[in-house]
Amino acid sequence: MSAFTPLPLGQRIPDRPHAVSCSLPTMRAVRGYEEKDPAITQHLTSGYPRFVVHPFLRQLAQHLATELHLAGETLWLASSPAMARGLAAYLGERARVIAAGQLAAVAHPDLPALNTRAKGFLQNVGGFLSSRAAEDELVRRGLLPAAAAETLFSGDPAAEIRRHLQPAFPAIEPAQLQLATCGMNAIYAAFRAAAELQATRGRTIWIQLGWLYLDTIALLEKFTATPADYVYVRHVSDHDALTRLFTKFGSRIAGIIAEVPTNPLIQTPDLPALAQLARAHGALLLVDPSVTSVFNVEVLPHSALVVSSLTKYTAPDGDLTAGLVVVNPAHPDAATLQTRIAALLEPPYPRDLARLAAQIPRTPALLAALHANVPRVVEFLSRHPGVRDVFWTHQLSSRRAYQQIARAPDAVGGVLSFTLRGPLEKFYDRLRLPKGSSFGMATTLICPFMYLAHYDLVTTPAGIAALAASGLDPDLLRLSVGTEPAEDIIAALAEALD
Question: DSSP string spanning 35-103?
Fold first, then answer.
């Protein structure tokens, strides 16, 4: 019998107002969530903040729309006036910036196409108002009695966060550890700064190395100069393909974006070789180590820019979002990039920073627990006849590449993925583990990753073929191992597999 209690549909994970995940306990719930089936969505009070507009934001937007007489319009609450201006410019002449006290918002006619376009922009660039900022504004306006009680750091939270990040970047001055409202905003700011700088040199081509997280792919699709300036190299180990690209387009290549390791296949490229190729041709290498965390891999010496989500691992309770950008100080463009990025980043809301500063001291203990649990879970899955493939940082295909940047032999991170020999739905519906998005939490989380990230692809023959060309099974499961006893996690998996 599993030690885990199944969570009902829509329950926040953790059960707190600002949780970044929520329970999707069956494949019917997953499909209903993606298809916006009212029978499912009515149970979802919240979800990952960039994908599900937080109820505090919805309540505040509705109140402001009534107060400002915006009947027939949609109102989006942005993280800053600059973000609101960016969204309005992206939407065009039918959108306008609205100032409401200290808040910045964008209004436009309530039309499905405009709504989809606006939400997609804010999701991709990490531009939504913080749920804590919305909560505080609702309290200020008398619409909530008080903010939910939580542990906050009482000193200078930004300084405290940087103090804990410093061991991962010993050559960096604390002020150069640039904090963002979420990981995607960190990626957006770094990419836009690098792209704008390289464009002045006639360099506009960007290379996506391996399958990346969906919003990173969206940034490349939306913000490269032309479709021809976005190039996808499917396999992270295909150094020959990269060499051919640089031979043909070297003077026009602006940079490479790589996750190290990738999400969700946990593949690691030969980062030193990749860095040498980029440097030789004047390209910028932007590296995202979020899957295992900046504490597990040393990537800055090989990169022009390092971007990372601090939602993962440094916030083990799973109730905030934050991001980080670090510029390699040895890079010739370091000063210029630092300045440009600072102008583009969305600063975290103060209470989010205070919450992160209260949690980040637990990161070493969290990682130690995950590093003990993950190999045991991998061993179980690898031996089980119902499991076809297991992907993790020490998988044979890229283990050597990972180990050359790992800070310690056991620094394996907390994420693995696997595929089944049997039907996904039967296994997923029987499984008692918490089921939801995100990773790097103290709580174990599992999700049918491709269904949540690329539902448009898993539901069409052309999409399935595109996934197959990149080595992705539509039924792949991503497992974020938590700090619960490994035997309990394994028992839950075994129960569902049998």
Answer: HT-HHHHTT-S--STTTS--HHHHHHHHHHHHHTT-TTEEEEEESSHHHHHHHHHHH-TT-EEEEETTE
DSSP assigned state of 361: G
Its sign, for the CA torsion 119, 436, 36, 476, is positive
Q: Where are the domains of the chain?
A: 55-127, 157-357, 362-497
pLDDT tens by residue, 84-143: 999 999 999 999 999 988 899 999 999 999 999 999 999 999 999 999 999 999 999 999
Find the mean pLDDT for residues 298-305.
Answer: 98
Global pTM exceeds 0.90: yes
**How is the beta sheet containing 305-309 ordered, strand by strand?**
178-180, 323-327, 305-309, 284-288, 253-259, 205-209, 230-233
Residue at token pair 């990039």:
337
Q: What is the mean pLDDT of residues 217-227?
A: 93
pLDDT above 80 (res 66):
yes
What tokens appear for 229 in the block? 């300036």
DSSP states of 247-298: HHHGGGEEEEEEESS-TTT-----HHHHHHHHHHTTPEEEEE-TTT-TTTB-
pLDDT for residue 46 is more than 90: no
Rg over CA atoms, the chain = 22
Burial class (CB within 10 angstroms; exposed 0-12, middle 13-18, buried 19+) of 152: middle
Say if residue 14 is preceded by a cis peptide, omega within 30 of 0.
yes
Portion of the chain with pLDDT greater than 90, in percent: 96
CA 112 to chain centre: 26
Rounded Cα–Cα distance for residues 107 and 313 (Å):
36
CA-to-CA dists, residue 360 to 197, 262, 292, 330, 486, angstroms: 33, 24, 15, 28, 23
Residue 45 has pLDDT above 90, yes or no: no
CA atoms within 13 A on the CB side of 296: 30
CATH homologous superfamily of 362-497: Aspartate Aminotransferase, domain 1 (3.90.1150.10)
CATH 2.60.120.510, domain 157-357, yes or no: no
